[in-house]
């Protein structure tokens, strides 16, 4: 909490109040297609798999949210990853002058693939760190849905046959809060590795870095400074 406040204070003092919302346009650009792919795909895969397992193998039905969430999140992540990369780089960008306009989503992506900047990998650079993103998002989604669905059903079953709308919203909120908290805590190291790979300035190194290597480097660095 202290480090978060200190970081926000430094951003405000060095770069101005608006810098605290850096990357918001990229976040909005990312949210719409991601949710538009993720949620419909999850519902689709969950429904067809639940129907299949209920008929063929009821014991496997409990694993349906995990598999459906994994597939849906993978599709959404791969499809929208360039915008995710742009958002991370925009948030990590450090302006040297307060009145200079920061690069937008398109300019950030052009800089990623611009050969003048030293990239010889072309459009492959737009998916730099995709492995780390999948390593973080796929387990997050699998853990989240595996906890959310049974937790929500348990809470709703305790409400009786005709729960009020407010009770249903409360049940969804409680189940989502618990599932999201557990999934976020479990995948936080992978999120750190993903961010480190996305903001790596050496393009050749960025293309060869692995999640395991990145986590090992972070671990060694933390041991050295402590």
TrEMBL record:
Q: Does the keyword DNA damage apply?
A: no
Solcar repeat intervals: 60-154
Q: Is the keyword Transport in the record?
A: yes
What is its subcellular localisation?
Mitochondrion inner membrane
Q: What would you give as a GO molecular function for this chain, any one?
A: superoxide dismutase activity
Q: Name one Pfam family in it.
A: Mito_carr
The UniProt entry's GO biological process terms, in alphabetical order, are: mitochondrial transmembrane transport; stress response to metal ion
Q: Identify its membrane topology class.
A: Multi-pass membrane protein
Q: Which GO terms describe its cellular component?
A: mitochondrial inner membrane; mitochondrion
Family assignment from sequence similarity: Belongs to the mitochondrial carrier (TC 2.A.29) family.
Q: What is this protein called?
A: Mitochondrial substrate carrier family protein
Q: Which organism is it from?
A: Arabidopsis thaliana (Mouse-ear cress)
Q: What is the lineage of its organism?
A: Eukaryota, Viridiplantae, Streptophyta, Embryophyta, Tracheophyta
């Amino acid at each position: 909490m202290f480090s978060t406040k200190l970081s926000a204070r430094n951003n405000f003092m060095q770069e101005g109040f608006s810098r605290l919302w850096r990357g918001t346009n990229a976040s909005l650009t990312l949210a719409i297609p991601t949710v538009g792919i993720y949620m419909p795909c999850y519902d689709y895969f969950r429904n067809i798999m639940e129907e299949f397992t209920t008929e063929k193998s009821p014991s496997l039905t409990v694993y349906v949210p995990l598999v459906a969430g994994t597939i849906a999140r993978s599709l959404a992540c791969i499809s929208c990853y360039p915008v995710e990369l742009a958002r991370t780089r925009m948030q990590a960008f450090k302006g040297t002058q307060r009145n200079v306009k920061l690069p937008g989503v398109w300019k950030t992506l052009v800089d990623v693939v611009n050969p003048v900047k030293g990239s010889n990998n072309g459009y492959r650079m737009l998916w730099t760190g995709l492995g780390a993103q999948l390593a973080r998002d796929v387990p997050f989604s699998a853990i989240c849905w595996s906890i959310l669905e049974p937790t929500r059903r348990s809470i709703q079953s305790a409400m009786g046959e005709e729960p009020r709308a407010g009770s249903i919203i409360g049940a969804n909120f409680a189940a989502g809060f618990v599932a999201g908290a557990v999934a976020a805590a479990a995948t936080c190291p992978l999120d750190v590795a993903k961010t480190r790979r996305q903001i790596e300035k050496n393009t050749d190194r960025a293309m060869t870095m692995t999640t395991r290597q990145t986590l090992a480097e972070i671990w060694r660095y933390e041991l050295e400074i402590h």
